[in-house]
Structure formats: C-alpha cells, structure tokens
Design goal:
CATH class: Mainly Alpha
Bound molecules: retinal
Main location: membrane
Number of strands: 4
Family: Belongs to the archaeal/bacterial/fungal opsin family.
Strand order of the largest sheet: 1-2
Shape: globular
InterPro entries: Arc/bac/fun_rhodopsins (IPR001425), Rhodopsin_retinal_BS (IPR018229), Yro2-like_7TM (IPR043476)
CATH topology: Rhopdopsin 7-helix transmembrane proteins
Order of helices and strands: HEEHHEEHHHHHHHH
Number of helices: 11
CATH architecture: Up-down Bundle
Membrane topology: Multi-pass membrane protein
Largest sheet: 2 strands, antiparallel
Distance between the termini: 62 Å
Radius of gyration: 23 Å
Subcellular location: Membrane
CATH superfamily: Rhodopsin 7-helix transmembrane proteins
C-alpha cells in the first residue's frame, strides 16, 4: 500500500450520520478532520510531557502535574472524536444562509463532545488556577459549580434551534462573568497574601486564562449560535484556543510552580511513608537519610488545616 497516497477517510466512515432522515449539510471537510487530528496529537504529546515531568518531583508535590495532564488527556480523546467526525449531531440553524456557500444548508453539524470535554476540563483548569492562589476550598467549589453552569447552558443552547438558544447563552455569560470576577479579583487577593512569587505565577496564568476564555463565547456566537463561519473555520478557532488554554496554559503553570512549595498554598499532602497526623512517630529510611523529602512531625501533621507559609522544613 502506498502510504503517501492514503487520505483521511473519517468523513466517509463516520460522516453519514442522519438526523430525522437528513444528513448535516453544514459539516467539516477532510481538512477540518485533519486539523482536529493534529490538535489531538498536540494534546497527546502534552499529556506525556506533563505526566513525565511529574516524576521529577516527589509524590507529595505533583498535584499540579496530575491535574494538568488529566486536562490534556481528556482533550486528546475529545479531539480524536471530532477528527473522526463523531460526537456530533445535526441541528437546524436559527439563521439559514442560502447565499453564503460556506454555511449554506439546513443542518449544521454541532459537536456536543466539545462540551463533554469542557465540563470535565474547565473546572480542572480553574482548580489549577485557584489552588495556585491558595483560595479556600468553599470558594473554589462554588466557582467550579458556576463554571459547570456556563458549559451546560452553552451545550443546551447549541442544540436549540429557535432564538431561545440565546437565552441559554445569556445565562452562560452571566455565569462566566462570575467566574471572571473570582479569578481577577478574589483569587488575586489570596495569591497576593501568600507571597510575591505566587502572586506573579498566578497573575501570568490568570490573565492568560481570562483573555482566552473571553474568546470562547465569541466563537460560539459565530458557530453554534449565529451559523456565520463554516465548521472547518470553527475547528481552527476552537482548536487554536484550546491549544492556548490547555497545553500552553499548563506549561506556564507548571513552570511557575517550580519553586513553590504546595504547603505554602495550604496543600499538605502526605506520602504513604509520612507519619500519620496524630499517629505514632515512625522513622523511615528516607527520614534517616534526610534526602530533602518533606516529613511533618506528629505535631506538624495536626496543623494541616492551617494555610499559608506555616510549615515545611
Ligand atoms: C459558552 C457559551 C455560553 C456562554 C459562554 C461560553 C464560554 C465558554 C468557555 C469555554 C472555555 C473552554 C476552555 C476549553 C479548554 O480547552 C459555553 C461558549 C461564556 C469560556 C478553556
């Protein structure tokens, strides 16, 4: 078989999905599919990089590597799905544009799998960010729940054919403004209180996030909402944003954390051979060797609920 002549046949294999007897006539072409598979490859490589880098840290210091690797792993699967022309359904656009050949047609291909990705990964991105700021967990939890409202309203709106879709869009935007306020204001105050190095890392990742996240509702308005740009352009728009918001964000965050002890953020994470809080002191080989791994004494363990630069020797 001549591999140089092999073409991506995902559209042929999976693109004959019919909704009520009709096939989406506003849909990705093999170019869109190729691009989705390219982004999938970027996400896979990033996942290996983040997971691999975690081994340069002791297990008690890997939380940000784990969260970030999980984000790109989920995205890789979502992009595989979209490259394969799956995870989509045909939706009649509110605005039918017969005179624009890029979006002429009666059924637009809507990739609902995008929202399944986002409902998992956007809370994890916020978790990365808000843990960096040393935010208290109730505010973190609340912000993640509001974020899920934003994504689910976006999903429902994208599947609605009438103008009511914009009602969902407005709910989603209100939720987003709440999230943006928390990231730019409340969490920034917390980051400042921890220390200037933490504040700097938080600021870089936070500004990057909010700038990029503002572009998603614009993309939605042009794609799922307004049916203005073609599904191939949609692939490029969301694909570039997702690369910036996941692998590039992750790299900035992990780099920013290189000199930050998780304990300073209130994250006191035990390894299996650390002494239990309130348990009996148990000397391990690592304690005796004193290899720089962090071991809290029995009394230190009891202060695990305090925040700030209180512990670690
Ligand atoms: C929607 C439509 C409803 C209104 C708003 C939206 C915002 C979506 C955002 C998505 C971010 C996704 C990321 C993915 C990472 O790869 C749902 C489009 C405000 C902000 C960061």
């Amino acid at each position: 078989m001549d591999l140089t002549k092999r073409e991506n046949n995902a559209i042929q294999a999976n693109g004959n999905h019919f909704v009520n007897g009709a096939r989406s006539d506003i849909a990705i072409t093999p170019h869109g599919s190729d691009w989705y598979f390219t982004v999938c490859a970027v996400m896979i490589v990033s996942s290996f990089a983040f997971a691999g880098l975690s081994f340069t840290k002791p297990r008690s210091h890997r939380i940000f590597h784990y969260i970030t690797a999980a984000i790109t792993m989920v995205a890789a699967i979502a992009y595989f799905t979209m490259g394969a022309d799956l995870g989509e359904t045909g939706i009649q656009p509110e605005f039918i544009r017969p005179n624009n050949h890029l979006v002429a047609g009666n059924l637009r291909e809507i990739f609902y799998v995008r929202y399944i990705d986002w409902v998992i990964t956007t809370p994890l991105l916020l978790l990365d960010l808000l843990l960096t700021a040393g935010m208290p967990w109730p505010t973190i939890l609340y912000t993640l729940l509001i974020d899920e409202i934003m994504i689910i309203t976006g999903l429902v709106g994208s599947l609605v054919t009438s103008s009511y879709k914009w009602g969902y869009y407005v709910f989603g935007c209100i939720a987003f403004f709440w999230v943006a306020y928390t990231v730019t204001w409340t969490a920034r105050k917390h980051a400042m209180a921890v220390g200037p190095d933490v504040h700097k890392t938080y600021l870089i990742c936070g500004v990057w996030t909010i700038f990029l996240w503002f572009l998603y509702p614009i993309a939605w308005g042009l794609c799922e909402g307004g049916n203005v740009i073609s599904p191939d352009s949609e692939a490029v728009f969301y694909g570039v944003l997702d690369i910036m918001a996941k692998p590039v964000f992750g790299a900035l965050l992990i780099w920013g954390h290189r000199g930050i002890e998780p304990a300073r953020l209130g994250l006191h994470i035990r390894d299996y051979d650390d002494p239990m809080p309130g348990g009996l002191e148990r000397k391990t080989e690592k304690d005796l060797a004193g290899n720089g791994h962090h071991h809290h004494g029995v009394t230190d363990g009891n202060t695990a609920t305090t925040t700030g630069a209180s512990t670690t020797v």
